[in-house]
UniProtKB/TrEMBL annotation:
Membrane topology, from the record: Single-pass membrane protein
Domain of life according to the entry: Bacteria
Cellular component, GO annotation: cytoplasmic side of plasma membrane
Subcellular location: Cell inner membrane
Domain LapB rubredoxin metal binding: 358-385
Designated name of the protein: Lipopolysaccharide assembly protein B
Species whose genome carries this gene: Vulcaniibacterium tengchongense
InterPro entries: LapB, Rubredoxin_2, TPR-like_helical_dom_sf
Length: 392
């Protein structure tokens, strides 16, 4: 959960403190005199003055004084506790929120709010066991407590208690309607990895199955499934799993390609491997399947055929790694150096055209021409020439 700006709490305190000052001043006027009203009003406006003059410590003390005068200022005290936590005064926030939780006569909504604040205090201070207890109490008090469930998920992730993380992710989905399948699948994959490392193959397979149930397109589940089948000597099953990963998300092809090609080699299906690599060159713009197919062409049809194939591919998808492979093939073949240089010149020109010459050192925006103001983050003077393109 994103942290809220400290000044957010200052501005939240302004209307709360105003109301508190007015109520207290009114009560003071009824019980004592106009002198009390004047004194409280003065205190309130002194606090505002401290805020405007960026003296938060003095402002906090005055608003605390107002809160102490009227114990019913619940919202003001919750906001002060949040402000203490943001300023790193976690112990002070804990004491304040503990007192609020124990206050008699709170509504259910107020008790939920105080418990939530206290649990966040504990999390900030690293007392995860106490935070867990508070959030579980809060969920028991209010079954639809999504923020508490979110915090519990975070706690169980940090403690690597994947079963509890899964349970609370499902409860969160039920309470909010927000799909949690992708996150649950990641937790199931963590369990699958744990079981696989322990040699518990059946349990690992079951966790992978549950991951697919949660997210039918889970790339990670497919990768784990493939490795499980490789470990078990089931190369055909591993091929299916790895190919499924590449088809669901081609960006992960480089991660599964080495293991996939090893499986194809063990089952002796070179034609199947070539067909799959040819398919992937249509869907994946990277160089990995091209280089793999180049090696297969070289092994089956010779260096000249491999060099010709790679040169054609690199005209459409220039790559430094591809360029290095083309040089190796040209040297191995003893090819015409002039023709090779022409190929390399074309590839290099394409790389220069496609790559940015300038980059913003604040947000990473890449540009072909210089801008004094970054089009992305709007900062001035942050776009500079890349060293590779600097003229010296």
């Amino acid at each position: 959960m994103a942290f809220i700006s400290e000044w957010f709490w200052f501005f939240l305190l302004l209307p709360l403190a105003a109301v508190s000052g007015w109520v207290i001043g009114r009560r003071g006027g009824e019980r004592h005199s106009n002198t009390q009203v004047s004194r409280l009003s003065t205190t309130y406006f002194r606090g505002l003055n401290y805020l405007l003059n960026e003296q938060p410590d003095k402002a906090i003390e005055l608003f605390l004084h107002i809160a102490e005068l009227d114990k019913e200022t619940f919202e003001t005290q919750v906001a002060l506790g949040h402000l203490f936590r943001r300023r790193g005064e976690v112990d002070r926030a804990i004491r304040l929120h503990q007192a609020l939780v124990q206050r008699p006569g709170l509504s259910d909504q107020q008790r939920v709010q105080a418990l939530l604040a206290l649990g966040e205090d504990y999390m900030r201070s690293g007392l995860l066991d106490r935070a867990e207890t508070v959030f579980n109490d809060l969920v028991a008090l209010e079954m639809r407590a999504p923020l508490a469930l979110r915090h519990l998920i975070g706690i169980y992730q940090s403690e690597r208690e994947w079963g509890k993380a899964i349970e609370n992710a499902r409860r969160y989905e039920e309470a909010t309607g927000e799909p949690m399948g992708k996150l649950i699948a990641q937790f199931e994959c963590e369990l699958a990895e744990r079981h696989r490392s322990a040699g518990e193959v059946d349990a690992a397979r079951e966790a992978v199955r549950r991951a697919y149930e949660a997210d039918a397109n889970s790339v990670r589940a497919g990768m784990i499934e493939g490795r499980i089948e490789v470990d078990a000597g089931n190369d055909a099953a591993a091929i299916r799993a790895f190919e499924r990963v590449a088809r669901v998300d081609p960006d992960y092809l480089p991660e599964v390609l080495p293991g996939l090609l090893d499986c194809y080699a063990r089952v002796g299906d070179a034609s199947g491997a070539r067909a799959f690599l040819a398919e992937m060159t249509e869907h994946y713009r990277g160089i990995a399947p091209v280089l793999a197919l180049t090696r297969m062409v070289e092994a089956e049809d010779g260096v000249a055929a491999a060099r010709a194939y790679l040169a054609r591919q690199l005209k459409d998808r220039p790559s430094v790694r591809g360029e290095a492979a083309l040089i190796d093939l040209a040297l191995a073949e003893g090819a015409d150096p002039i023709a090779t240089l022409h190929d390399l010149k074309h590839i290099t020109d394409q790389l220069l055209v496609r790559n940015p010459s300038y980059r913003c050192n604040r947000c990473g925006f890449g540009a072909r021409s210089h801008h004094w103001q970054c089009p992305s983050c709007k900062e001035w003077g942050t776009i500079k020439p890349l060293l590779n393109y600097a003229v010296v």
